């Protein structure tokens, strides 16, 4: 399976044009959106963006999306918030929102909530779609602090995913391989950044693309 992975669109409608062209160029099977589809709404914008993508879309909300965004996504794509699905034989589990931030954004969950929701749908060797990164990986802000989720890190340690896809921390884009898991933050799609990720026979190939790469 080959995925085009984007995150942090923040309402930029024009991103859909290059998402469609890059997906076609790379023969992607589907598009995964890791949240912050909008900048605090509205729901109709999320439906418009998801519905304008040519391929099947699997999406989660971000912390800057309203709580109603999963319903908006479900109208024209596949809502992955708190859900799991098998695509091409690959178990994919998703959870949107983020752990608490200093900004009091709309879609924040406690660490206990994050763990409980993910624990229900997780499976060893899965692909994990989350908006917030696990603590300590792809989660450093410019001050040098790590702001990822401790609950997501617990899930990673418990289930040993093959692949973890996250966004949220715009500055922390990158590909990290640790203890057999590949961690990918493609960087914000509002700046033209994306990742192409292939999963075949238990192996991951991930590359990040964008104007500053």
Written overview of the protein:
With 213 residues, the protein is of the alpha/beta class. It has one domain: Purple Acid Phosphatase, chain A, domain 2 (4-Layer Sandwich). Strands 4-3-2-1-11-12 form a six-stranded mixed sheet. Helix 4 packs parallel to helix 5. The two termini are 24 Å apart. The model has no long low-confidence stretch (mean pLDDT 97).
Q: Quickly count the domains.
A: 1
Distinct helical segment count: 5
Mean pLDDT: 97
CATH class: Alpha Beta
Return the structural class.
Answer: alpha/beta
The main pleated sheet reads as: 6 strands, mixed
Radius of gyration: 15 Å
CATH topology: Purple Acid Phosphatase, chain A, domain 2
Distance between the termini: 24 Å
Going by CATH, the homologous superfamily would be Metallo-dependent phosphatases
Strands of the biggest beta sheet: in what spatial order? 4-3-2-1-11-12
- Beta content: 25-35%
Order of helices and strands: EHEHEHEEEHEHEEEEE
CATH architecture classification:
4-Layer Sandwich
β-strand number:
12
The poorly predicted ranges are: none
